[in-house]
């Protein structure tokens, strides 16, 4: 028998791996019930205005076309909490790409042709899509969760003015897009007043609850299945248009309806990372001790839904100073609604902060690693709470050792290979530890097997595998005796996969259910189980969401080596190294996959990914993977992820922290700092594309 004591913490292979590589895993658009038809949306072609007419006659005359839904004939929905789901309900157009009609036909090709044949007329209105830090409509949003608004500590401006060493710099991060491999898709079926939807979502429970509200149904009459999800990165974190539109069309036609959004639709309707404008002022004593930190961020939001990119949040956590001010402003514009994208807030915020820290190190003539070590702390600067665990210094030292940082010549442009300038950079990283209440059930069967049920979502992270390990550990049984059921809203309710909180939230409930079942079985003293077996349930409400006396965060250190071609301006990353302090690592194999994936995404943020808003038309010009460039394997020749296994008893029964997002947080800054070390030029706008590099003085 395998060693059951070590089931948790072993590199168990992914349970769904064989199904995925053999093609038997089914995604939302791969469910085709009998009689299934297809839908295709019609996006608005104005940035702001009102629909004056919709002519669907040409579309309806095409062979196989069943209907065209518009605001004039679509089913009425209740007013949603999320305005982006108020679809086909009125004539307003809040931004370019807003869906104004939906064509339904027997075939996908027919639906697409019908959508192209729909003619929509508009009363167009003047629009504003340009983000400026001095925009007159900028405001400070209400701080409802401690991540936005304005936060003051001491006398930041006076301390900055009085300091002997200061930097006052501005950085810009452009709009970024999620672009998961699986596009947003849904297949909806109505039968006997019951709605079943296969949806590409990071949280089937939330989608179920939303659909029930929109269509005025009891939750028990809605089932949402998100069995396999091909990535999301936040864009599938809350319900998006596809399950709503598919359910509307299925209700009207009386047939199952399948809707898969075209990739070019995604930037306008499923969220994006808002562009962020940063101004950072850092002040320090001659020994590098920070005395003042001022971080001001301006981002855009849509006019129908407020979403701040909370980029000042990590500044309040990572480096202590007696005086600080962080201010988050948003500007409502005629743009698509931004939303979550991997490490929302932390990724752009730490890029700017850690780049500014590098600039401060240069001003001080101090090693960048040493500056960060000089400003380590045991307590969270803003709250004053002790950290449940913080091993940032260990990450920096271990990363420096592995990266051979001591051999680095600190002088910029000190290393050259022909036309190539070589540089190295470092950055720190942090991400909050979060958990939400969840339910789970555990059932023991006479055959010695155990069923674990929880409506978790596996978005490619290995949730099935790790939850099985948690259950095996709690029950004290071999891993192969655990059967896992997830991704179905008929299972015990669970929160979405997001905020690096999935495993902590679901795993907490699975652990509790497993422990209770183990205690129940132990009390039977070897008595045979009844034919139906024995089961227990667990609900972590009031526990997982309880206040803590500790500040709970993950930390990490990123190191990068780059080459900069002085002829072409091309930046190539030669090495990436990340060292993390993220609690107890539950599965080294899946953990490394998460760390490495996030680091590659950070590389894309630094070098290739970026979007622009067309001021004339109000749409994103980089709307597909032909123009929005993500890294490929050849872009990352050497990448390493390591970790310090922490013993943190203050977070959850497993001692685990989220790992899905910490890997992206510091990567872009480390690469940007390496480019500065290589060239001697500080580039403050991402991505670092050849055209920007070649404009640098002396390149």
Overview of this protein structure:
The chain is of the alpha+beta class and 699 residues long. It is 24% helix and 24% strand. The chain contains 16 helices and 24 strands. A 7-stranded mixed β-sheet has the order 3-5-1-12-9-10-11, sandwiched between helices. A 5-stranded mixed β-sheet has the order 7-15-14-13-8, with helices on both faces. A hairpin with a 2-residue loop joins strand 9 and strand 10 (194-199). Helix 8 runs parallel beside helix 15 (667-679), helix 11 runs parallel beside helix 12 (502-523) and helix 13 packs across helix 15 (667-679).
Q: What key attributes describe this structure?
A:
24% strand, globular, 24% helix, 5-stranded mixed beta sheet, single chain, alpha+beta, 24 strands, 699 residues, 7-stranded mixed beta sheet
């Amino acid at each position: 028998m395998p060693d059951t004591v070590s089931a948790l913490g072993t590199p168990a292979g992914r349970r769904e791996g064989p199904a995925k590589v053999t093609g038997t895993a089914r995604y939302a658009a791969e469910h085709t019930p009998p009689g299934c038809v297809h839908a295709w949306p019609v996006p608005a072609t104005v940035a702001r205005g009102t629909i004056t007419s919709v002519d669907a006659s040409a579309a309806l005359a095409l062979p196989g076309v069943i209907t065209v839904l518009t605001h004039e004939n679509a089913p009425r929905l209740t007013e949603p909490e999320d305005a982006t789901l108020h679809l086909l309900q009125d004539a307003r157009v809040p931004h370019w790409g807003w869906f104004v009609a939906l064509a339904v036909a027997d075939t996908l090709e027919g639906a697409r042709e019908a959508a192209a044949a729909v003619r929509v007329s508009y009363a167009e209105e003047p629009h504003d899509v340009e983000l400026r830090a001095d925009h007159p409509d900028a405001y400070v949003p209400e701080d409802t969760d401690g991540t936005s608004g304005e936060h003051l500590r001491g006398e930041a401006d006076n301390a900055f003015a009085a300091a002997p060493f200061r930097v006052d710099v501005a950085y810009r991060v452009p709009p970024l897009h999620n672009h998961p491999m699986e596009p947003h898709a849904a297949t909806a079926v109505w039968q006997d007043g019951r709605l079943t939807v296969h949806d590409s979502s990071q949280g089937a429970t939330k989608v179920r609850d939303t659909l029930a509200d929109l269509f005025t149904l009891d939750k028990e009459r809605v089932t949402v299945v998100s069995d396999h999800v091909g990535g999301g990165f936040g864009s599938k974190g809350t319900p998006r248009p596809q399950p709503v539109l598919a359910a509307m069309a299925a209700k009207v036609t009386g047939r199952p309806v399948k809707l898969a959004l075209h990739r070019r639709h995604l930037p306008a309707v499923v969220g994006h990372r808002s562009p962020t404008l940063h101004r950072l002022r850092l002040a320090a004593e001659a020994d590098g001790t920070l005395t003042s930190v001022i971080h001001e961020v301006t981002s855009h939001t849509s006019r129908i839904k407020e979403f701040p990119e909370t980029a000042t949040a990590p500044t309040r956590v990572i480096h202590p100073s007696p005086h600080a001010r962080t201010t988050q402003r948003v500007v409502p514009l005629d743009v698509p609604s931004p939303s979550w994208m991997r490490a929302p807030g932390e990724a752009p915020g730490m890029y700017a902060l850690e780049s500014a820290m590098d600039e401060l190190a240069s001003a001080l003539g101090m090693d960048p690693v040493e500056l960060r070590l000089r400003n380590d702390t045991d307590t969270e600067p803003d709250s004053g709470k002790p950290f449940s665990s913080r091993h940032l210094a260990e990450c920096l030292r271990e990363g420096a050792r592995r990266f051979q940082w001591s051999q680095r010549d600190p002088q910029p442009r000190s290393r050259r290979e022909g036309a190539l300038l070589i540089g190295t950079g470092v950055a720190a990283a942090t991400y909050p530890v979060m958990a939400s209440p969840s339910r789970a059930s555990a059932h023991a069967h006479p055959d010695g097997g155990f069923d674990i049920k929880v409506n978790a979502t596996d978005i490619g992270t290995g949730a099935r595998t790790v939850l099985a390990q948690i259950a095996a550990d709690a029950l004290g049984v071999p891993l192969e005796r655990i059967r896992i059921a997830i991704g179905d809203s008929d299972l015990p309710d669970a929160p979405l996969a997001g905020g690096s909180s999935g495993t902590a939230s679901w795993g907490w409930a699975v652990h509790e259910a497993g422990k209770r079942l183990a205690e129940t079985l132990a009390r039977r003293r070897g008595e045979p189980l009844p034919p139906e077996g024995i089961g227990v349930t667990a609900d972590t409400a009031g526990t997982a969401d309880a206040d803590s006396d500790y500040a709970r965060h993950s930390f990490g250190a990123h190191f990068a080596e780059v080459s900069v071609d002085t002829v072409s301006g091309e930046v190539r990353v030669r090495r990436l190294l990340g060292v993390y302090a993220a609690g107890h690592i539950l599965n080294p194999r899946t953990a490394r996959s998460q760390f490495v994936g996030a680091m590659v995404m950070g590389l894309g943020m630094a070098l290739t990914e970026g979007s622009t808003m067309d001021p004339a038309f109000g749409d994103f010009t980089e709307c597909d993977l032909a123009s929005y460039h993500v890294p490929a394997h050849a872009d990352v020749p050497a990448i390493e992820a390591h970790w310090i296994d922490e013993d943190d008893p203050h977070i959850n029964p497993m001692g685990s922290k989220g790992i899905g997002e910490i890997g992206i947080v510091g990567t872009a800054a480390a690469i940007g700092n390496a480019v500065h070390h290589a060239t001697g030029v500080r580039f403050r706008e991402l991505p670092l594309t050849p055209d920007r590099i070649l404009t640098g003085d002396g390149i």
